[in-house]
Write a structure and sequence with these properties.
By secondary structure, the chain is α+β, with helices and mostly antiparallel strands. It folds into 2 domains: about 375 residues, Outer membrane efflux proteins (OEP) (Up-down Bundle); about 70 residues, Outer membrane efflux proteins (OEP) (Single Sheet), CATH 2.20.200. The strands form 3 sheets. It has a 4-stranded antiparallel sheet, with no helix packed on it. Strands 1-6 form a two-stranded antiparallel ribbon. Helix 3 runs antiparallel to helix 8 and helix 7 runs antiparallel to helix 8. It is elongated and about 140 Å long. It starts with 20 loop residues before the first strand and ends in a 7-residue tail after the last helix.
Amino acid sequence: MPAFTGLKPRSCALLFATALLGGCTNVALEADTGALPEAYASDRELPLRPDVAPDQAPPAAFGEPPYANTLALKDAVTRAIAFSPALRAAFLEIDARLGEEAQSSVRPNPSLLIDVENFAGNKGLSGFGGAEETVSLAQTIELGDKRLKRLQAAHLDTSLAGWDHESLRVKVATLAAQAFVDVLIAQERYKVLGEFVVLAEKTRSSVDARVKGGKASPIELDRASVALARAKALQQAERARLNAAKRRLSALWGSSKVDFGSAVGRLGTGYTAPTSKSLVTLLNNNPMLARWGDEINRRVAQLDLEHANAIPDVTLGAGVRTSQDTDSTAMVASLSMPIPFFNKNEGNIAAARRRISKAENEQLAVRNELYTTLVEVLGELDVAATELRALEKDVLPGAQSAYEKTRIGFDEGKFDILSVLDVQRTIFETRLEVLTARANYEKARARIEALIGRDLNGL
């Protein structure tokens, strides 16, 4: 009985590329669903007592994950999915709808009727001496394949719950990937600022030696000391930013404190930004849009059910009548059905038909919203890619060359400390800008891959 054996997650080719950082492994986000009850041609072929699927344990963990010395992107996404209470709730909704699906195909219960007539009257009908007793059973026979049509609509309801679970899972994974990038970038920025502090200390020591040798003014030592203090302040601020990013990432899987040491991985080196035209067809992979195929089918099934509800059901009854007066027994039978004179279910049919049109327009609205988001994020990716190319290919090499020349000139007495400090600050600010642009690129890329369900490297 395929309609009642439980839900299998929908396989929808959502290859959400969590390998945003080189060396990390892709995480496939997949969900399956069971087949529609197409094997049944009529509700008469449905089982009399459909099986209710047993409770299924949610595919998620409770509590908090153990402490990890290092955390890769795959681990961060896995933790966020595994410990998400929202995903547990979405899975339980699937389980609940499976129960409703089984209930939808249950036949109406038979009715027991006990009828006593001709008693407690006067004359010969006083007491129960002339009573007639009828015991009968009545069964409503649903016409128009109502059971099957209820089951089809309920099954699609279950399928929609599966799509909602999948949409939420993609959202959780995307948030985890972006938060992981924030941690990794903060670690890299902290490392760069640490090098800045070391270089500023060396510069101050060099200026101090020159001042003591009478080759430089004490004011140059003050300037070098200020540059060192500023470098240390920037590093301390970045340390605080790193701690905040780690707390934010840990909070995604419900941890009350940071439960990992450091993020491991490396940022990509790409500069490409595809066009929206090449990606728009891939939006069909997005579960927020893919669900609308089932949503429209569910509303069509609801329309079929409303048409079936307009067909009157027949109630058949049969029983035994006993007459105390004649001490006789006889069979009785009955047949009844409502006459669709006033209520032809026309209002519900019209409403169901209009909701099909509504769903088709909602599908277009969701597609437009996703396309707008795709264009917006592609713009962010293009801006980050353009900035990266300029910084890494033009600005950073020039700043490095200027620093080397200025350093040599300072040692030879050709430049003062202000020139050294200026190019020194420029090169480190450029390196920090490169990291920021790389973070923006990787986070925009994660959002695009979540929208299209594909790895951009495979396009």
